[in-house]
Amino acid sequence: MIKLINTNEAEVDDKLEDILTRSSFDDPEKMETVEEVLNDIQANGDEAVLKYTAKFDGVEFSPEEMLVTEEEIKAAYKQVDDEFLAALETAIENIEDFHRRQKRESWMNVDDDGVVLGQVIRPLESVGLYVPGGTAAYPSSVLMNGIPAKVAEVDEVIMVSPPDESGEMNPYTLVAADKIDIDKIYKVGGAQAVGAIAFGTEAVPKVDKIVGPGNIYVTLAKKLAYGYVDIDMLAGPSEVLVLADNTAVPKHVAADLLSQAEHDPMASSVLVTDSKELAEAVQVELKKQLAELSRQEIATQALEDYGAIILTDDLTEAIEITNRFAPEHLEVAVDKPFELVGKLKNAGAIFLGHNTAEPLGDYIAGPNHVLPTGGSARFYSSLNLDDFIKKSSILSYSKEGLAKVKDKAIKLAEVEGLDAHANSVRVRFED
């Protein structure tokens, strides 16, 4: 069951470190497999992509059959219900609205001496979305990765997702992609999908950036492909940290911890609290709710291996541990949550108040659910509109403006021993 750690007990730092140190991406055996796949695709294109699709997904395609057809999309609509479509529409509306607010404008500043400086903001030309698939349905991943790309006005947005054993894509995933006007959809997954869109083949176009979560093979493939293309981040197993005081409801806290634990045996669910009564009550609730879960085995293993209830002396210490953890999802279940916002330095997304359950962020609220994991919230942000744009600096100097700074520019160039740099400025004043 989930471990209880009191910050006053012996060797507490070692115990905390075991929880804080989540999975890494250093797996030489898997890395070797992924490297072999990517090298093969670079050399042999579609032939290699189809070979690995047959090997890993058990499906044999021709190159043309990888591309999802209009008929397949129409058939998908017949397999989903109106309730799903209504929920999808609400999610799309909220996610679009949130990301539109992130839009930046190009700007230009003209000084009196004729110096013009500015920044031109343009969308990327092509982006590839990786969406997990096979037997699972992840329409929310389609929305969270595809909508900001569309709001940023990326020229071409393509999607790759693994097929099931019959060579079909999940209908919920297909309908979600169609609703947000994804340009092309390919039935290919795993490391071979990343290789296909990173390098390009005859059937699958090369993209400028790859976004979206996947298993360890997909993540390692993105890591190796970086440089050929840009990537969003290296996303590990999901995690939640609940920062709570004695006003939190044990049943709610337990449910929120389990909502992450059921994702993956390596998911991390942590409660940090200064209330012993809450800590003990949550332990009881976890046992009760675990018994009712369909994914009980997965959630149990996650709680045992990567879960913890951390009991602190006070809320100040609890906040320090929270910032050290830098969680993907941070729930703040305290009496006055907004008073703590300025003290919470590291988190992918912050859920404030007793009624703000983490799944709201996964599906419907609007903020992006593609978030930094494994402590990388110390330096990474959630997926956002900036991930789909590029910025070019603009410079223009008049003769008058150049004259004001020429000697300083020449001096700095000379200090660096770059005579030609200095001369490039100097010659403009020799005539």
UniProtKB/TrEMBL annotation:
One of its GO terms (cellular component) is cytosol. Substrate binds at S238, Q260, H263, H329, D362, E416, H421. This is Histidinol dehydrogenase. Zn(2+) binds at Q260, H263, D362, H421. Keywords: Amino-acid biosynthesis, Histidine biosynthesis, Metal-binding, NAD, Oxidoreductase, Zinc. InterPro entries: Ald_DH/histidinol_DH, Histidinol_DH_CS, Histidinol_DH_monofunct, Hstdl_DH. GO terms for biological process: L-histidine biosynthetic process. The gene is hisD. The active site is at E328 (proton acceptor), H329 (proton acceptor). HAMAP family: HisD (MF_01024). GO terms for molecular function: histidinol dehydrogenase activity; NAD binding; zinc ion binding. The keyword Thylakoid does not apply.
